[in-house]
Every structure is written in C-alpha cells, then in structure tokens.
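Side project, low priority. Logging it here so it doesn't get lost.
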Amino acid sequence: MRATQKNFRRNILITSAVYTVISIIFIYRVALYGEDDSFNSFIKPLFLIIPTSLMSNNNRINIYPSNAIEAAELYEKLRYNTSGKWIDEYYLKSNLLTLKYGSNRGKVLSSIDEIEYYDSDPRLVWSVYLTDILNHHKSTKERYTMPFSWYDFADFQMYNKLISIKEKYPDSLQCSILLHPAFDKSLLQRWEKEIGESLFLSERFKYEDPFWYRSSKSFSNVAINNEDQYCKPIPLNETTRFNIPLNLTQYMDRVRPEAFDLQARNYLLNNIRQPLSITLLNKDINAYRIDIKQDNRSNLVESGLLKKYIRGQHRDEVTQDIKFDHDVIYSNFLQNDISENFRIDIPGLSNETYNQDSVTLTLDDFKFDTVGKINDLLKQGRENLTGHDRNYLESLEVSSATHAALAPKYFKEPGGIIQFRSMGHHRDERFFHGALIYDEVEYSAKLNSMIRTFQKFVKANGLISWLSHGTLYGHLYNGMTFPWDNDFDLQMPLKHLHYMSQYFNQSIIMEDPREGNGRFLLDVGTSITVRVHGNGNNNIDARFIDIDSGLYIDITALAVTSDVIPVRKFNYYDMDDAKKVKESDEIQNVSEEAEKQYYDIYTGLASLSIQKLRDYAGEHQREFSMDNADHIMKMYNDEVRALPTADTISSNLSEVQRYLFNQKLTMVNCRNYHFNTLEMITPLRASIFHGVPVLIPHKPISSLKIEYKVPSKYGYNNHEKHTFTTKINNWVPISVMSIARNTIKDNALFNVHSNLVSLKFNDLLSIFKNLLIAREYDTFTVIHNAFETVTYRQKEIEIEYDKNMEVEEKKKHLRTLREHFSGDMESPAKDPLLLQYERDLWNKYTNDADAFESDELVSLVNEKVLKARWKSYSKLYEQMYFKINDQYLDNVGMDLFEDSQKIGKDVFTDDPRWE
C-alpha cells in the first residue's frame, strides 16, 4: 500500500511540475502578447503531451480522478458547475457489485444475488425502472403499475453501513441503539472499525469528548425502559436483505440527531405507507404520473427488475460489465409513444401560464364546491376511480366530517430531538435524515433543489402558486432566498390546492434527471375543506418534502373564510366602505338559504356552529378527549365571549355573516390569519426565483409591509450578520466581507479603497481575489454560481420600479427580458446529491495527493474561473451584458449596478406601477 501511495505521489509531483511549467509559459505568453487564451484552449491541450505513465496509477482500478487533468476537471465541476450532469459513469461491477463497507469492502461480488445493500444512485434506479416501463408496453397493453420500495428512492447510506455489519455483530444491533439518547461509544467504535469509516459525520467529534459523552448519557426518555412498546427485534432468519433485524413501531424523538436518523430510516423502510405514484418531470414542460403497486415493498433487486434489466442488455453479469445510462433511457422514454399513457393534463389548466406577463385570478379561484365534487366522484363509482381520485374523495369526506375544533394535527416534526437547536421543527419526522447542516454550500444546495423542482412541477401542470412571507422578501432583493432562511413559503388559491390534491397528493415528484436528482413527496393534509384557523393544529395545507433530508416547503391555500379580520397597522380596506358593507341588509339579515349553503358542505359534528358543538360536547362528555374539549372551549370563548367586544370590524358578526362580509370585501386568508385583498394579489406578475419561473403578488411591497419593516433603499444593507451590496448582489457574511475588504491590512491581500456603501467597480475584483487568497471558497462559489439569477433580478428591478417609464413600455421590456434571458438559466447552486458525490471523490483524491500540489491545482482552477466570471462583471459595468441582436437592454431603466447609492435610495417605497 505504501509503495502504491509513493508511486502515486511521485506521479502527481512530476505532473504538477509539468503543470507549473506550462502555467508559467501561459502567463508569460499572455503578459507578452496580451492574448486571451483560456485554460481549455491552451493549458489543457498541452496536458496531452504528458506521458500516460505520469498521469495515472496503474495499480488502481476504477479510481476517479486518476490524474491531474481529471482532478482539475473534478474540482471545477464540484465548485462551479451546477448542471445535472454526472462526472463519471455507473457500472454494474465497479459500482453496484463492489462492496463499499464492512470487512469485505473493495470485494467485487460475482452475482447480484449476493448483494445485501446498495446506495440508491439515480443512474441505477432510473435505468432499471424506466427500462421496465418501456419493456412492459412492448409485451402487453395492460396498465403498468410500478413496484416500489423506499429503499430505492431515499438515501440509506448511513443505514447501509449498519447493514454491512449485521452478520458479524448481530448482538450489537438491538432496539436500544434506536431508542437511547446517544450511541454507546464503545459500540460505535466497534461498528466503525468494521465498516471502515465513520458511521456519521455531523458532530462525530463529540463522542471523543468525555465530558460531553457523560452529559449526553444523562438524558433519558420513556422508551429506554419500555423498548417493546417502540421497537420489535426481528429474528435473523426472518430478516430480509437490505435491512437490519429491528422494526421501529413508533418514534421516540428524545434522542440525538444521529439516533433519530436511524429511527426514521428504519420506520420509513418498514412501516411508512407506499406513495400512490411517481411523477416524472420533463424539465418544466410536462409531467408523467406512474401508479405504484400498493401491496409490494420489494426493491429493484428483490422484485427481479435488476435481473430483467441485465438480461435485456444481453450480458452475463459475472463476466461483463454493464453501464447504466439513465439520461439516454429517459430521453428514449420521453420520445416513445408509451410516455403519452402517463402524461398528466389537468382540464382547464395550461403549462403556458408561467410564460405570460401576468395571471389574473377571480374570487371564484378562492372558493370550492365540496359537495358538488364529492357527488361528481361518487357518480363514477368508487371502484372505477383511479387511486388518486379515490384518495382525494376519501380526504374530502373525512375533512368535511371533521369540525375545525377537532381536527388532529396532520404534519409532524421531531421537535424533541436533543441538542438540535429546535431545528427538528423544520424537518418532517418521517424523512428526517442528517443533523444540522453547518455547510452554507450544502444547505443552499438542498433549499435550491427543493424550490426549483417545485416550481418546475407547478409550471409543468399549470398549477398557480406564488411566493409569500419571507420567501417573497428574499426574492425582492436578488431573486434568491435569504441565506439565513431555512424554508420556503408559498401560497396558492384554494381551487388549485384541490387540483394539486386530486392529481398529485401522495406522489413522489422526481426532477428531470438531466437537470438534477431531486425527489420529493407531495403531501396534502386531511383538513382540506377546513378553511378557518380552528384549533391551530393544521395551519399548513400541504408540504413538498425532501425525502432525503426531511426539509420541506410549506404550502398554504388562500380562501374566502369566516375567520375574524385581525387588527393590523395595515389598511386592508377603506374603513368607511367596509362599515357600509357590514351594515348592509345582505350581511345583517342573512337568509336561511345562505345559512344552509354555508353549512351544507359539512356533515356530522362539522355541520354544527361552535356554540352548538359546545352544547353537544357538554351533553356527551365521554365522546371527547380532554384536548378536544379544551379546543372546543377555546374556540367558543374566542367567538362567543371575546369577539363581540374585540377591536375589529368583524365584531358582532356571526360565522356566516363574517363569511359573507369577507367575501364582499374580497378578503382571502390562510388558516394562520394571513389576510390579503384580491387586488393585492392579482394579477400575479411573472418573475424568476433561483433561476426558474415564479409568480409574485401584484403588490409585493404592500404584502410584505403587513409583516415586515421593508426599507425603501435598494443598496448597501446589513441584516442577520450579512451584508448586501448591489455590485456583488448577494448577502455575504459580515465576517467574510471584512476579510475580503482587507480591513486587517494583511499584506497578502489586496487593498480595497472604497467603502461598501459606494463600492467602486475596480475594487470588486480585489474583493474576489481576496476571497480566494483567504480560502473563503464557499462564499466565492455562492457568488459565482448565483450570478445569472441575481443579475437577472437586478435588471428586472431596474425596469419594474422605474417611476419614469410608461407602463406599456415597462411591460414590453420585461417581456423581452424574460423571453431572451430567463430560458435555460444556470442553477444558482449544485444538485445536493452531486455535491456530496463529487466531494467524496475530491476528498479521496486529496487524501492521496500531496497537499501542496493539490493546493496549486485549486489555485489555478480558481484563477481560471475568476477570470471568466470577471468578463461577465465587466460587461455589466460597460452596459453590454443584456445583448439582443445588436441592441442592449442594459441602458433601459435605472442603473442600479453602478449608481445605486443615489438612484436606489427609494426604490422600494411603493409597489411597481402597472396601471
């Protein structure tokens, strides 16, 4: 082994020496002749003259990267390439059959029958399942339903490490490992010695701290002494492959994150119900929904799909390798007539919606005929409904029979996780995976993948949603979320929530594999017809959940409701007009027909007013739990006792009167008392967020001022330990910016002569160079990768908020901007799965390479990238970036890039003018 490393290092050293010589020649050539040769056009071809013996290590098999060229390509792709393209290829023998963990790691199995674990690499999973779909339709016309296992569609890497040792140490895999607050240290070390690497990475170092370890062991939970109520051991002779011999029957979140991680993966594998379908996206153009078998939890090995795939390649798995080319197979699927059998077209909706300048909504979009929908579905006969329609019908029936005071909490978060800084509240407990994410690049990659995939999903299906709350606030500045924000907030009209629920509830939404590897469960709660706050258990209507981490997007529907309009500083309506509406005969003398129509959508206890429900509960106390009784009394006290004297225009109105009053004012709200008038929302405006099309409210500033203090200035700003400047157009940590500006006067760094309020263009290059010199690579990576998105948003602001531009001219220029510059925009962050995959490759390379030589390689790539990116900044400065034929859009609107201090001081005072 030492000889192998010695040879490898010798080869790298020689290669680096050649690399350095070539770089000197290149620098000299540019200095002498002023030529603008790039790395790819000059340096890389010269690499080809280096002998192969110096570029690779012949003692290693299937190692990537194997030489300096590949290492440079890997580093550049890892840092600065956000496409969904994989850097290498996936093969049967060198990937799937080669053991990654355990005492036999590195061994190549002779058959797929010997496999006991594998990582759910999308190249493998997509290739096998799509080939099965294509082959099925060649042999039969029967409708295809897909076998499914969570094991194939979620990250089980940590879980697989335990599987790799289950035969050698069955005594160590007891229920206690899932339920105790922290892992037993000696047991953990024993596992990791066998696995060959750490079981987990986040805060792994804490187990080496005796004080911390004693402290963590002092935590207790009820499960420790009641294991059989939470977990059941599975006899080894009954344990299937791809599992450990334990079955968690209920969660216990009073444990460390790494322990709950194992709980969640075990419960997901063994007990979480199957999704109804897989929805495949073709970019943001179309969606294809494939139904899932509900009585089969077999993965692609257990179901025989992998064996069928291998046979279909006419290969012998023992003697020949097989490449899994999922991109080609997916393209074949899309081009095949078979795909039309799965394509979803929602009647009345269009995937062209987001390509329009604006989208107009009416009050009817915020109402829904529940009774009519239930009757329509029942007329078809339950037995004739699709799985999605049947599930939707059942949710309507359950919801319409459940009173708002009695609705149980649907979405659950592991809020009790120990030493997790309450971050469990931002994870779905079913898919919790991984602890706190300290890495800014990794976290932004996960959030970016979520929002981009969701927006492509809604656009492909014509579903209308728009940015709201803190997400809208982040968009306002640079078309990105705030770096300190840990989730997204989206709103949609009630009618479109129902569309989404009927067609996609309980479907796994899969990002187009040519663009990324996102996989998310679309989960709509069971209280879909309950539109008031109620007991407060279900303020969120739906979630778009990352099944690899448990992170999610909250989706709330706005509807006309009977909720009380809250007292706010913001004037939703003209008070005099509102009083006239309140005193009108239509509101004061509600007809019996209007009363009946309001309550007709509900059945059973749900059809009772809160006063009648309170009376019923008093007469039937045994039917109600203490919690439900408390919820009923709270709602009763709020409405019957407190409301008549409350400081709100809704006082002294009954539930039905409030509904009619809100409707007359065109007031709509979510179930957490967020109100908007229709004219604040519609017509929705088209924009870009994280590089993909989105819709934003008609009056974004007014909407934001309801919740936040929005500064009028667009320019230098400080918030949440970050600073914003219009030239960088990103929120940069203040501590990093201090280094970049060389406030400590380090001789190794360039001097920055201007301040951030009026940052000069020439100083911008010095800031970027300082980031690289100081090894603040993550910050430079974020700035580089987000360039297209933030630059687009700045140009959009320059046109939208230009008070001197005529409305029609403004609309024309925004349309031109969108049509010419929003298509195929680079993602502002990497796909999180590719990020981790390429990091692992890079770490393996640097572990063997000489540290000095790998640093030199990093420096050369960074310099190359900075040089290319600086050309883009220079074009912005010269107002030659937004070129269309021979015309430039740069000189249209305000010049916020160069002159924000003077021009940007009152940009966000008012909403953009559209009339």
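Brief comment: The longest helix spans residues 2-33.
Revisit when time allows.
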